[in-house]
Each structure stands twice: as structure tokens, then as C-alpha cells.
Amino acid sequence: RKFYIKSIEIIERMRRDIKVEDFKRDFMKDKIDTYERLIDLLIRMKREEEAFEYNEKARSRAFLDILASEKVKFHQGIRPDLADKEKDLLAKIQSLSGDISKERTSPTRRTAFIDEQNMKLNKLKKEYEELLGEMKLQNPEYADLISVNPFSLKEINMFLPDDTLLVEYFLGKERSYIWIAGKNTFKTVTINRNKDEIEKLVRELRSYICDNMTGEKLKSYKWIEPSKELYTLIFSDAEKYIHGNKLVISPHRSLHYIPFQVLTDREGKVLLEKYDISYIPSASVLKYCEDKNTEKKNSLLAFSSGNAGFEGFPPIPGTEKEVKAIEQFFTSKEIYSGKDMKTDILYRKGSSFDIIHIATHGVLDSSNPLFSCLIFSDRRLNVYDIFNLELRSSLVCLSAC
Question: What digits encode the pLDDT tens for the residues 214-260?
């Protein structure tokens, strides 16, 4: 135990010396094994609270540092040659993405061409991510970026609402764990399955509820069996210790890819019928979310793709109905649909609204996460763009896919 604790202290010191969050994330990739071995050991020693706190140390640290620090505008004061390189790279990425989208919708679609262009595109995306790191290193504000320690269980209980329970997961190489924490509750549940076995079940459920959707799949009930199996494995034992109906779930690894609301219990009820569920990357992040939430709900800025198709993505007519149903609750509102939903509106007006509702296609880029995006009529809004938005909203809702 002392050996692992000392090793983690060294890792934490080294990590604090790294100022750019992208590099911190990369630094931690091959260090998680040390945390996992200590967590396993502490649980065998019946030191469950300590194990929970080391799980907090292992996760979402770069994001926690960003929330705890003032926003760094890393584009300010960068060298002109880096700014030119960024502009050039983004133009190439946008052009290549457009070529691929056109080819995908072409009647004479060339699969080999698409694969070749995708390889070029991934290379450009990686080059862009490396450039962002270089730009951040050039910015003196990053020298002042603070590195914060995750909170202890006692501190987390202080800012966890009285009527809410935290359900936090850790998926390991040999076994996995769940912690249930609240004002008067703390329990540890062991799952005798490893991360790969759980991921296999997650993939099976996703194959019915998310992947390559068809009309037949939408009408099918085949998702219920894997949903029940996953419920039994990752939730039923934890549920014995749950009281009340408000849960904050902190998933881990593949569990980020499932909506817990559709897990089905032995009576055939989905969790959505029983609990008010929200998600958080780590319990320590909760404090900063609470601090930043103004709870104002007076004005609405909404976007819906509606009957328009962008970049080869099909229309989503239901999004217009959705926004019309929501807008009646607001006297102060601005609604933009179809070709009128443009990113520059979000940049110019986003900071003036309490609620922002975006109903459009979303694209996950698991190889280059910064290029995951939302589809607007004028262009894609990528993750790296979202970091530059000036928002003061208490809620941003991403709807549709």
C-alpha cells in the first residue's frame, strides 16, 4: 500500500508541473494501472472510503483543472506563423470533410476514395491537435493555470444535495466497483466482471438502440434482454442501497456510452420510470458545476435542423415540433431553424440567454475527440470551437442524435 501511495504522489507532482490540459491527459494514460492496483488493495483491506478517493484522483483531472481555473484565451498573443498555420489547417480539414460528405451521398459512391480521404483527414486532425498544444505552450496565461486536488468524500458530501445520491463506477482489468454515496449513505459494491466483459454487453445494447438505426429496429423489442442483463450486472446490487429518486451517475470507460435511463429491471421497468438521473465525469466536478449554475430560466435561444439537410445529413422534422413545444414556456426567446441555424448566431448571442437548446445531428469522432461536432447550416461546430464560446447559461440541451 505504501509503495503505491508513494508512486501516486510522484505521479501527482509530475502532473501538476504540466500546464497544458491535453498533455496532462496524455501523461495520465499509462498511469491508471497504478491507481487501479491501489483501489483493489484498499477494498480488500476494507478501506472503501480511501479507495473511492483514489478513484476520484484517477479521473477527469484535466477537465477539473479547466473548471477550477479562469478561462484561458489561448489564441491571444500567439505568433503570426502559428495563427496562419491554424487557418491553413482548418481550411484543408473543412475542404476534405466536404469532399468526403459529397462522395458518401453520390450515386456512384467510391468506397476506396472515401477510405483514402479519411486517412488524409485523420492525419490533418492529429496535426491540428498538436498545433493547439504548441499554441497553448506559447501563451503565458497557461503558466498560471492551477492544478487542483479532487475533493475528499467528506467534502463531496457537503456539496451533494440532501435528496441526491452519487453512483460512481470504476471498471478494472480484473474486477469493477460501484460506490454509492450520500449524506447518510456510503456503500461499495464489487462487480466480479472486468472492463472488457462489461464493454461487450455495452456494445450489444448499443447495437439495438444506437447503431445503424432502421425502421425495423425502432419497432423491435430486442434491446430489452441486453438491457436487463446490463441492469443485473452493473446496477441491481447497487440499487439495494439507493433511497430516494435523484441520482447523479459518474460512469467509467464504456459506461459513458450508455443511457442508464433505459436499463430495465426484473419487473420490466426502465430506470427512467424510477429515477431522476443526471451524469457527471467525477464527483469533484460537481462543486464547480453548482458554483457556475445561475439557475436562471427566463430566456431561450433554440436551434433546430428541421426539414433542412446539411452536409449529406438527412432532415429531422421532429426537431421543429420539439422546439415549438418548448418555446411556449418562454416570453423572451429567439428560434432559428433550417438554413437559419448558423454558428455565428450562437457566438454572438449565446451569452445573453439562460437556456440554449440545440436540436440537430451530432457526430462523434472517437479517434480525434476535438473534432466531434454538432451540425449547423453553415458549418460544423467542433469541440475545440465550443471551448471558445462565451456562455452564461444555466442549461445547454443537446437534442436529436
Answer: 888 888 999 999 999 999 999 999 999 999 999 999 999 999 999 99
Cα-based distances in Å from 227 to 131, 166, 200, 396: 42, 21, 12, 28
Q: 374 forms bridges with which residues in the sheet? A: 362, 381
- Edge-to-edge strands, sheet with 395-399: 332-337, 299-304, 355-359, 395-399
22's CB contacts (< 8 A; 6+ apart) are 62, 129, 132, 133, 136
> Is the C-alpha dihedral spanning 196, 197, 201, 207 positive or negative?
positive
Q: Which three cell numbers stand for residue 343?
A: 454558428
Q: Exposed/middle/buried for 61, CB within 10 Å: 0-12, 13-18, 19+?
A: buried
Beta bridge partners of 249: 167, 279
Question: How far is C-alpha 101 from the geometric centre of its chain's CA atoms?
Answer: 25
Spatial distance between the Cα atoms of 170 and 331, rounded to a whole number of angstroms: 44
Contact indicator for 8, 17 with CB cutoff of 8 Å: no
Separation between Cα atoms, residue 10 and residue 74, nearest integer Å: 29
Strands 373-375 and 185-191: unpaired
Q: In whole angstroms, what is the distance from residue 259 CA to residue 263 CA? A: 8
For residue 77, give the C-alpha cell: 498573443
Residue 396 parent element (H or E) = strand 395-399
Question: What letter would DSSP give residue 270?
Answer: B
357 and 326 in contact (C-beta within 8 Å)?
Answer: yes
Q: pTM for the full model?
A: 0.80
